[in-house]
Amino acid sequence: MEFGRLVTAMVTPFDDQGRINWDETAQLIDYLIEEQKSDALVIAGTTGESPTLSDDEKLELFRFAVDKAGDRCKIIAGTGSNNTSHSIHLTQEAEKLGVDGVLLVVPYYNKPSQEGMFRHFEAIANSTQLPILLYNVPSRTIASLSVKTTLRLAEIPNIIGTKECASLEQITLLVSSAPADFKVYSGDDSSALPTLAVGGYGIVSVASHIVGSTMKDMIDSYLEGDVRTASKTHQKLFPIFKGLFECPDPLPNPSAVKYALQLLGHDVGGVRLPLVGPNEDEATFIKDLITLV
């Protein structure tokens, strides 16, 4: 399965009552594919506010995205959790709906051992024919999937890659030892180009909601050997990459990018509690940031 180089972790649009806004979801999918050049979309991941989506909402989002995207891009369902049996159930239901793959986050809060994480992902992989992208994000999960465990998991046929947020060092170690067809993606926008430079495959991005087409140009420039142009594009985008998360103080994802989308005319609504939107200073910072787009 080929998910492409630029994968957008899509926000979930809400209306003013906090319900999923299906009309805006349809428009957002079109926009991310046609204007921002996403090769694939992650639906109901962290950026999609998965912790506050019910299973019924997630499954309806998967179905809706598959139907709306058609053959224009791949749909990756966020079905990971810290409950192995629940992740198996959600993955199997997503498979029935026709998604192209699933994203499985490292189990959070219960802090499993490396062997526990291996068995967790192995059990889910054995329950489905879908291609699986692992997701290691220790800043959120506390537990971190080691290089050694990731390489063990890479030997399972339908575990085809990982979204790695631990460090560029870990990405480097993975790409130097993993099977040739195992794809390593950065989960940090500011590391997109460095990840390519050390042999990684692509980026699972938040900033691609607003600068995706420029990011795609950066990736293409690098792959075509024009490293100078890619570097200059990275430098231009870097304040946006950092600003969406620093804002000027750390603001929980996806609060900043949702507000940025609203400023650009996309009525994606706010975030569900316990997340909150930007305060006055943060809103001003995001407005200034958008002038760089």
Task: Tell me briefly what this model is.
This protein is of the alpha/beta class. The protein contains 12 helices and 8 strands.
Give an overview in words:
This protein is α/β, with parallel strands linked by helices and 293 residues long. 47% of the residues lie in helices and 13% in strands. The protein has an eight-stranded parallel barrel, surrounded by five helices. Strand 2, helix 2 and strand 3 form a beta-alpha-beta unit. Helix 3 runs parallel beside helix 4 and helix 9 packs antiparallel against helix 10. The relative contact order is 0.13.
For the structure shown, list the relevant keywords.
cytoplasm, alpha/beta, 12 helices, amino-acid biosynthesis, Schiff_base-form_aldolases_CS, DapA-like, diaminopimelate biosynthesis, 293 residues, eight-stranded parallel barrel, single chain
The oligomerization state is single chain
Low-confidence stretches: none
Terminal-residue CA separation: 32 Å
Return the structural class: alpha/beta
Order of helices and strands: EHEHEHEHEHHEHEHEHHHH
Got a strand count?
8
Radius of gyration: 18 Å
- State the helicity in percent bands: 40-55%
Mean pLDDT: 97
Q: Please give the count of helices.
A: 12
* Strands side by side in the biggest sheet: 1-2-3-4-5-6-7-8
Largest sheet: 8 strands, parallel, barrel
How much of the sequence lies in strands comes to: 5-15%
Mass-distribution shape: globular
Please outline the helices and strands.
Blueprint: E1 6-9, H1 22-35, E2 40-43, H2 55-69, E3 74-78, H3 84-96, E4 101-105, H4 114-126, E5 132-136, H5 138-141, H6 147-153, E6 159-164, H7 168-177, E7 183-186, H8 192-197, E8 202-205, H9 208-223, H10 227-246, H11 255-263, H12 280-290
Parallel strand pairs: 1-2, 1-8, 2-3, 3-4, 4-5, 5-6, 6-7, 7-8
Helix pairs in contact: 1-2, 3-4, 4-6, 9-10, 10-12, 11-12
Pathway: Amino-acid biosynthesis; L-lysine biosynthesis via DAP pathway; (S)-tetrahydrodipicolinate from L-aspartate: step 3/4
Organism: Paenibacillus macquariensis
Function: Catalyzes the condensation of (S)-aspartate-beta-semialdehyde [(S)-ASA] and pyruvate to 4-hydroxy-tetrahydrodipicolinate (HTPA).
